[in-house]
Queue: 3 jobs
Job 1
Amino acid sequence: FSSACGAFLLPCMAHKRSSAVHKITMCSIVQAAQAWAAAVSDVLTSKGDFKRVGLRQMSGVLVLVYARSALEPYIGEVATASVACGVMGYGGNKGAVAISFSLFRRRVVVVSSHFAAHQDKVDARNADYTKIVRHLHFHNVPTDKPQQQQQYEASDTIVPDSEGSSYPQKQQQQLGRAAGIQAFISKQQRKCIESGVDSLNGGSPKRGSRATAATDNSVAAASASSGSNGLDEDWGAGMRDAELLVWVGDFNYRIDSPTGFIPDRSDLEKWPLNAQLYQYVHKLISARQLEHLLAGDQCCKEMARGVIFHALAEGPINFLPTYKFEKGRESNSMQPFYDQGEKKMIPAWTDRILFRGSDA
């Protein structure tokens, strides 16, 4: 009897401890979101009169939208949504959170995302993108497959708007206007990709390699996978029907084949490819040769292939890589201190801002 009782009590005690830890963790996550919201509000109110439109949180992924108070009478239909792409496809540590609202009767969507990590996980990041665009859904936007959508919504935390938004609720929905296929990447990024070489596969430019095929087939690939308006036909209504879409986040795309990188394969055990690439990327950063780095940018290459961010544009990248800086050291454009740890994390532009324009 005592053995059976003990076998029963131990799992119960473990479950109680697990539940307590979960509650503490969730409380900490909510408090962190509120702290960020308060900090952003303090900065904005010091610059002018702003009001929070909405907030959505999923684990460590957070999106906040503010508008000038003068616009308040023209803002309505506020809704939030999320899609989880993390552990087992449902964890909230990866995925997207979004806020949708109408401004002058035009629908605006702001999305914040965190994609799969690690240098070689390009396909996993692309899969995160696909899942988000297909399954991000707002309760006030009609969808053809509402039941299918429900299984992809994360069991996350929604922090209420403490300011008590009184925006009028309207029922207006507008169809989006695409920016056009050729606006996927800026001329700067396109030029960089065209000059790239398939370094990791031998070090010489090859017709048909990933680097050259990216630009040669960008419009053709996009047209094949997209509708006439430049948007993927599999996009869900949540993002497809927005007239203004702003998508920000840590997309985790890395640099894998910058211009001129020719790996030494004579002794990969002693000098792994990652270590060689790490050293070469740092050399290009020191020389401020950003165009050579951009030639190996995974995000630019996948966009040029028509795989991700269909019909979204990105501004010129004329700044140093944003990942990954040394903790505890202050970096700036003149003296960046990138991570020097044993893992040799290769600097990259993991943090991006993409958009599709509007007349609003």
Job 2
Amino acid sequence: MALSDTTWGWLAVVASVLCFGSFGVPIKTKKVLEAKVDPIVFQSYKTFWVLVTSFISFTYNEFSYTPLGLVSGAFWVPAGCCFVLATNCIGLGVTQGLQNSLVIIVSFIWGTLIFREPTKNLGGAFGAIAMLMVGVVGMALAPSLFYKATPPPRPSSGDELERAVKNGGQGDHHDDHHEAPAVHHETHLITTTDFRGNVVSPDTHLQIGKRWIPKKPLGYAAAIFGGTWGGSIYAPLKIANKYGLKAGGISYVFSFGVGAVVVNSLMLTCYMLYVHYVTKKPLPGPQLRVMWLPGSLCGLLWSAGNYLSIYAIALLGYGTAYPAIQSNLIIGGLWAVALYRELKPKQIILWFCSAALAAGAIGLLAQMTG
């Protein structure tokens, strides 16, 4: 018996969830973290592979292009940079939980309220979204609960801080038998004071220009902006499909890839000018020796998820498919728990309970809008 379009659409959702839930894993690999790869550089690798893989669509479709791809690129590239930054600051599990929850809200608004896609039960769909949000918020907050803060570290000299930044926040590395400095003690991390006299450490703060920004609020801000802004990535695709443009459907991946490259190039150029003329710091390099594998893997996984999500949106509708695809936060959270040990036992229990609630809400949303 042949499968219906709806069944194929949900199979595409599941496969897309696996790809999107795993593409962020390379961001937190040890070599990438030690190399301190700039978010815009990491995003550039993703963008490159999105364009390269987009040519696959022409093996079974005629060449087509729409400038709407530039609009999608303008939404995707900044959101992608925010994802990398937030992952480095607050972890993979929290980033996907928070960013995806906002994507769900924005994409549901586009599909249901703006594009007027048919819904079996609008009240039930809003109830499912509310239920999903509760689960997602629980996953996002789990790492912050049951957390016991360590005593504040002592201030260190500027020279120590400079060496700590170069060594990844771990102080000096001595080869002789002299007594190790206090910076190696558990509660005596390398620190300095910022321009306001506050104690800062490379472990808890990120240097942007001449300022030291606390990682946690910076990460949450990046995730919030990325989710709010990135929730509209596929809205131009829906417009292309709605008006019957030749570049709609799966052919849209090429327009998307071109738009992403154009926007990425503009952002990279502006960022390089800012670094060179404003911060007076060395320009970030591509770091090919470190990034060729994790950058390529990240880009290929995202590209595969992108292909599958476009199929799912075409078969199920924007308001149904795109929110459901954001359940990839469950896969990302599993990676965060199992591989990177981002959560403690009590936090894991809360996270899994919240994930179960989110999964149930996604199933309910499918019933209300499918």
Job 3
Amino acid sequence: MSVLGRIAMLGGATVAGVAAYAQQIQQTSCKAEASGDHHNVLIIGAGTGGVTVATQLMRDSRKPTGMQVTMVEPAKTHYYQPMWTMIGGGMGFTKEQSGRPMSDIVPSNVNHVQEGVKTFQPEKNAVVLESGKTLTYDFLVMSPGLKMDWDKIQGLRAAIDDPACPVASIYDGSTAEKTDRIMKEFKGGEALFTQPACPIKCGGAPQKVMWLQESIFRERGIRGATNVSYFTNLPAMFHVKKYGDALNAMAVEKNVNAHFQTDLIKIDKDKRIATFQHLETKEVTTKKFDVLHVTPYMSPPDVVKKSPLAGAAGFIDVDKVTLQHTKFDNVFALGDASSLPTSKTAASITMQAPVLVSNLIHKMKGEEMTGKYDGYTSCPILVGDGKLMLAEFLYDLKVQETFPWDQSKPSVFFYYVKRDFFPWVYWNSFVKGTWYGKNTWIYPSAAK
């Protein structure tokens, strides 16, 4: 495929067995129409992962005839969360622009149960909703996302909720707008940015907002009066060496004070003091701040962590190639709450979703699962000055780039793809099941 053709990514039995399943589908479909309690495919979560699976599943010509799909999602609005980084980074977007009514996103041929889950009972093929109602299923797809653990860092919630306190985060639409405001009000001094010691969604976002604001500080003429400090749990600016080396050099070039293997543990919003702990030596240090951007701790929803679906770390335990659950063979998972050992990004969904859908359909029909996910993910790292570094890699941090040039070198082209093309393709193709990331609109062979 030509480079121009890939512009977009940036950023898819036996005869007796098939007959038996077709009969089962007819029976369960009738049951679902009669009671509304049983579902052929039940999808938990209508974020990027859940919606993409639903739309691709309904579009797939291989799906069993009469298959019925239901999504369980309490939210009324679906957000394009990558836009929150651009809001907090001063790129002129608003929270309102980042959302669409959930009714416009969930496919019209998919049932939507607008309610949360109370318990998962996979041994009974059942999900109990918060209302107490029980839904049963033939197959379950999990994509519940992560929750923000605002209370895990002492003093963070109080600081975030105080409109007069210069502490904010891009990891929520409202607090992303607060980030934009407090950065605009900042006149110089100590500007601190943090990344926590846990798996997070979009691992590059904590530094994206820093690079964007550092660039704006220079434009505003206050950079000389500002110390920019970045505190990360990692031993480098990024966990993939090629991009980490380039970002380490950039930190030196732009006079960013990088503190590695260091975790924010406490905020005193009144004294404006942040407390940190080194992850290896356990040494505790404090630093005053005039503005502070915090990436909160994150984890799967409590209902997931307490369920039989979760592994020891609380994430949904799935095979990293097939995306099938390691214990319950009629359960699949993708996205942030899964145990997949790759970065948690929207780009990863472009490859996870088609593999999951393919394997789910094969499993439904009693066939061998042939879809194989290789861990592909991408992190478009905004680095300020109207440029972007496009990191792309597979499992084991193996670099796999789409373009025939060194993507560790920041590019104006990538910046405009991120700012203008990605939001457009998300709403017009991604959530409609027709976007396959680095493959653009071409169905990936790994999912066949």
